[in-house]
# Entry
Amino acid sequence: MRFFVDSINESSLILGRNENTDIPVGSVFTLIGKTRLNDRTTWTSTDLGAVATVSLTLVIVHWYQREIDNVPGGHTAGLAVSGTGLDLLSEHLDRLADDESLYLAAA
# Structure
């Protein structure tokens, strides 16, 4: 399961978009991965793999101004997490090139 990270807001919510698989509350994200956009016309990208390990447990999913029990596949959401690695995620976001993006991965 992968959640593509756009930003972290002032309330420490991780904002981004899910792939096609639901991510339930209680899931543990164990790594930060990176992708690079190859072509803006076809939106193809290359997975550059893991850049750091984390242990972030999904506690609350904020979705359209309400709290739900999973991140629906293919949707945007705000994730409240507990654990270690949020500061590391923020550091990696600050260093991204314009053609790169980050994701959190959970088993």
Q: What stands out?
A: The mean pLDDT is 94. Residues 86-94 form the longest helix (9 residues). The radius of gyration is 13 Å. Helices lie at 86-94.
